[in-house]
Design brief:
The complex is a heterotrimer of chains A (about 180), B (about 400) and C (about 120). With about 180 residues, chain A is an all-alpha fold. Chain A contains six helices and no strands. In chain B, about 70% of the residues lie in helices and about 0% in strands. The chains are: A mainly alpha (about 180), B mainly alpha (about 400), C mainly alpha (about 120).
């Protein structure tokens, strides 16, 4: 292809894309759900690469820390703890048409927004970091910034903790 | 700000001496830099395995390896040769792909940490603004290796060991990260280079001994050393997640473990004990490497001493200790540190740690911080005393 | 401080770091003998013949720790920018951070009182 020069930037973009899409194909194509969850982690890793390329190293670290280090392990754990997830018999679930049409719809919407910039100009991807992590920290807790969402997030997480414990108690009672 | 790291140094070297173009030299310098930085931990642990075995033997009143070479110095190489010629056995019902990836990931996750470790002035892989977060992020990949290895072996003990290890590892990650936030709070940056530079005259361990201690204890569990060695439970799970591994794959799990242990000492040295700082470093920067490794190794052997002298805990005791002592303590310590920093600012004792202030200038701040830490220690000790007393009274009443 | 080159270094590190441990494994596979048989590749477990399937349903206890960890993990990630900006914050922002940590402690105390943190 003319006009495409292999710079470190494009090289790592390609690498991230291969990881993200390859991982995603691995997820949906595997009848062994444990392997599927490992592929999901590969895919999430590719997304961290995108964050780096978009000058958001903090989000990249968060992606690896939270999505791979916590959520990925949690999903892998959940699959491993459950019986019969390693040898699924059928490749398609009975609701495959619903999933297919939903993802097709999402794909069309995404494609449309890429071609027709509704939510902002695509060429506005910055060449340099628009702000540092320190700026993010200031914005998160200052009065004219996002202090309310910040605290609401804390409340939400506390609620999530309570929910997890209530579920755990039920499971424990069922065990006994 | 100008970049001062190993790639830049190599790049200018290549450009000046060999006359390469700037893009080519940058490319070669990056690859070379990666290879150099990534092999450092692996080379160090070859010697460290010998040192660790010798030290452990002395603690336990044995001689340790002393047959291969003078003082058994070549023991590690003999082991390496033996592991290389062992048969590569994969258990019949194992998940082959995951089984083979797990030991590789185990070592890779530690090597990745070294990319941001400053080893001497200007000797660092890369100086990231979010370096502290990067360390935690890549270290969490090690947890993944444990669960993958435990599951793929298709062995009940390995699986149980893997599950248990992950539950323990993720629990101990919380106090570790809380302790890591304290240096970030002091400086307002996550860059390890700046954290080391700020400790030129006052180590952070003097400013926050509790953070250093919680980090030490949590990382002791995180790298699976006694008394928290439930990742490798020889006595109740035959070994744990790696029981089905043999030959070089087991060797890699072992190497990963040693690399973890070394990295624990390295991180402690960098974050709380001044990293490469020491006398005369500003005159002869290469001394920094020496100080860096001396400090790391002293901390490594301190952790080794704990390992060889303290009996191991049960899993429930281990979880209890983490969730009911370490986690609350580390969160309270973060709160107290933040509060004290504001008070120090209000009182006018604040110094800009980023400019590596002199020892005397930092003294008032250090004294206030130390007082805060002493207060916390007093509270913790009195809680322990109160609880112990109650338990003794209950035991006496029972009789 | 950071340029795309720094991240190219990290990227190269990610590509290269698995190769280093993979090399000895591959060399060992080439050097070592290869005579597997049915008894040799049996699952070792603790020396006895293995009974039943390994990949079965396990206790939910392990999962609960993972869930609680996830919640703390997200909170810590949100605290990181706060800690980085701390020196430049006014008293209001300082209070906001405090409230956040207090809510974190709150969740911990709840879990504690409900005995969710005890290994059973």
């Amino acid at each position: 292809m003319a006009g495409i020069e292999i710079t470190p930037h494009t090289f790592f973009f390609l690498l991230s894309t291969i990881l993200t899409l390859g991982g995603a194909i691995g997820v949906v194509n595997n009848r062994n759900l444990v392997r599927g969850s490992i592929w999901l982690i590969v895919s999430l890793f590719g997304v961290a690469g995108y964050f780096v390329l978009l000058h958001a190293p903090f989000l990249a670290a968060v992606q690896v820390l939270v999505y791979i280090g916590a959520i990925g392990i949690l999903i892998t754990f959940a699959v491993m703890l459950t019986r019969g997830m390693t040898q699924l018999q059928r490749r398609f679930s009975s609701l495959w048409w619903l999933g297919a049409s939903a993802s097709l719809l999402l794909f069309i919407v995404l494609l449309f927004t890429v071609i027709e910039p509704i939510w902002g100009d695509l060429s506005a991807v910055p060449d340099a970091p628009p702000g540092s992590t320190t700026d993010l920290g200031i914005a998160l807790v200052s009065g004219d910034g996002f202090v309310l969402p910040f605290e609401v997030a804390a409340v939400l997480l506390t609620a999530a903790m309570i929910g997890a414990i209530v579920l755990a108690r039920e499971a424990r009672n069922a065990d006994e | 700000m100008e970049r001062r790291d190993i790639v830049t140094a190599l790049e200018s070297l290549l450009r000046d001496t060999l006359g390469f173009g700037s893009e080519l030299s940058l490319f070669i310098a990056t690859i070379l830099g990666v290879v150099i930085i990534a092999t450092v931990p692996l080379l160090v642990i070859i010697g460290l395995i010998w040192g660790d075995r010798k030290f452990g033997s002395r603690v336990q009143d044995r001689l340790g390896p002393n047959r291969v070479g003078p003082f058994g110095l070549l023991q590690s190489f003999a082991d390496l040769g033996k592991l290389l010629t062992k048969e590569d056995i994969t258990p019949a019902n194992a998940d082959r792909l995951i089984y083979n990836v797990a030991p590789v990931l185990s070592v890779a996750s530690v090597i990745l940490v070294w990319a941001v470790i400053p080893m001497a002035p200007n000797v660092v892989g890369v100086d990231l603004e979010t370096g502290v977060l990067y360390i935690i992020a890549v270290a969490s990949l090690g947890t993944l290796a444990v669960v993958m290895g435990g599951w793929a072996s298709n062995n009940k003990y390995a699986l149980l060991g893997g599950f248990r290890a992950v539950a323990a590892l993720v629990s101990y990650e919380i106090p570790m990260v809380m302790a890591l936030l304290v240096p970030v709070l002091f400086l307002g940056t996550g860059s390890l280079v700046e954290i080391v530079e700020a400790q030129a005259n006052m180590w952070f361990v003097a400013l926050s001994p509790i953070a250093a201690l919680t980090f030490f204890l949590a990382s002791q569990a995180e790298v699976g050393r006694p008394p928290f060695d439930l990742i490798e439970a020889e006595s109740e799970l035959t070994a744990g997640y790696n029981v089905e591994y043999s030959g070089m794959k087991f060797g890699m799990f072992m190497a990963g473990e040693y690399a973890h242990w070394l990295t624990q000492g390295v991180l402690l040295a960098v974050l709380f004990f001044g990293g490469w700082n020491g006398p005369f470093v500003d005159r002869w920067p290469w001394l920094g490497i020496f100080y860096f490794f001396i400090k790391s190794l002293i901390l490594f052997f301190a952790s080794d001493l704990v390992r060889f002298t303290i009996p191991r805990l049960r899993i429930d005791q281990m979880m209890h200790f983490n969730w009911q002592w370490l986690v609350p303590l580390s969160i309270v310590n973060l709160l107290v540190t933040a509060l004290l920093l504001k008070i120090i600012q209000e009182l006018g004792f604040a110094v800009d740690l980023a400019n590596s202030p002199g020892f005397v200038d930092t003294l008032p701040m250090t004294i206030i911080m130390l007082a805060g830490n002493a207060l916390q220690v007093a509270v913790v000790l009195s809680i322990i005393r109160f609880r112990g007393k109650r338990q003794r009274l209950m035991a006496a009443a029972g009789n | 401080m950071e340029s795309i080159n720094s991240w190219a270094f990290i990227g190269a590190f990610f590509v290269l770091s698995p190769i280093l441990p993979a090399l000895p494994i591959i060399v060992a596979r080439l050097l070592g003998p290869k005579k597997p048989n049915a008894i040799k590749t049996q699952t070792y477990e603790c020396g006895l013949e293995t009974v039943g399937d390994t990949w079965v349903q396990f206790r939910v206890q392990y999962y609960i720790y993972g869930l609680i960890f996830l919640i703390f993990d997200v909170e810590m990630v949100l605290l990181f920018p706060w800690a980085m900006a701390y020196q430049q914050l006014d008293l209001f922002a300082f209070g906001a951070g405090f409230l956040f940590i207090f809510l974190l402690l709150d969740a911990l105390i709840y879990a504690w009182r409900k005995d969710a943190l005890e290994w059973v």
